[in-house]
Write a structure and sequence with these properties.
Blueprint (H helix, E strand, L loop, with lengths): L31 H6 L8 E5 L13 H14 L5 E4 L31 H10 L4 E3 L12 E7 L5 E7 L13
Parallel strand pairs: 1-2
Antiparallel strand pairs: 3-4, 4-5
């Protein structure tokens, strides 16, 4: 990368998702420090093919856990990447052929039958936020950890605030039986 002056077409990571620690709001710094070190401080960072799990046919793809994971990841990446795209919009995933059944654990925001999954609704809620991000001071049990917020002001002056509770512990995706 040091010798080339041409554009960087892609930067591959094989994580499948942003690495988030349950007690830290921000994920690892991503490629920005490396790009600066190699003389590319102005390179645009477009993070694509990001999702909840890299595993096909995983039940986590249908639960609320996936929606709150998506919100946490999008919130965490805000201001640190130029664009963050969820992996796929639909469960019509050509590399695997026709899905074996309607609810098969597909990667998409929408099932093959057109049913919107919880992640789809999370993206829709994000689209309702305004153009100007506002700071939020949260306190109390779970603030800025299990309970997260994203506040904004819309062009008409109205406020939009999104609040969600989540854990990044995938083993709790079905709830804690205790």
């Amino acid at each position: 990368m040091r010798r080339s002056t041409g554009p960087i077409e892609s930067w591959r990571t094989r994580t499948g998702r942003l690495r988030l620690h349950p007690h830290v709001r921000q994920p690892a710094a991503g490629p920005a420090p490396t790009l600066r070190r190699f003389g590319r401080p102005d390179a645009r960072i477009l993070w694509t093919e990001w999702g909840v799990t890299p595993t096909h046919f995983h039940p986590v793809n249908y639960g609320v856990f996936a929606a709150t994971f998506l919100l946490t990841g999008m919130r965490s990446a805000a201001g640190r990447v130029d664009a963050l795209s969820y992996w796929v919009a639909s469960d019509h995933f050509e590399e695997l052929g026709r899905p074996p059944r309607l609810l098969h654990g597909g990667f998409g925001l929408i099932t093959v039958g057109g049913i919107a999954k919880p992640r789809y609704h999370a993206v829709w809620l994000l689209s309702c936020l305004g153009e100007t991000e506002l700071p939020v001071r949260a306190s109390g049990d779970g603030a800025d950890g299990l309970v997260q917020t994203w506040a904004s002001r819309r062009a008409d002056g109205s406020l939009a605030v999104l609040v969600w509770a989540s854990t990044l512990d995938e083993s709790k995706r079905d709830g804690d039986p205790r």
